[in-house]
Amino acid sequence: MVKEGSPRYVPNRGDIIWIQFSQRRGHEQGGRRPAIILSSKQFSERTSFIFCCPITSKVKGYVFEVPIAAGRIRGAVLADQAYTFDWQARRPTYAARAPEAVVSKVGELISILAQGA
């Protein structure tokens, strides 16, 4: 796998990246922060987009938080704050690989949200 700083790196499902979250409003996450990729590498290659959720270091025990510890990243994935970004324009850097159990749990919570629960 090609890592940070390489123009050949393509984000893949389960990767944790550092990316710029901009134009923050209200309680949204902002600034450069880690995020977990939920879309596939094929989606990233074909569209230049990624579907991801931010990771916060301030764990509050909220129902849509998923605890995560991967590499130097510690905190909680915010499953209710999913974003789609043009990764080629934002130039993310690879940080770590998320445990599959975390990726699955985040996906489950997003499915619950999408069903109107």
UniProtKB/TrEMBL annotation:
GO terms of biological process kind: mRNA catabolic process; rRNA catabolic process
GO terms of molecular function: DNA binding; RNA endonuclease activity
Stored InterPro entries: PemK-like, Plasmid_toxin/cell-grow_inhib
Protein name: mRNA-degrading endonuclease
Origin organism lineage: Bacteria, Candidatus Kaiseribacteriota
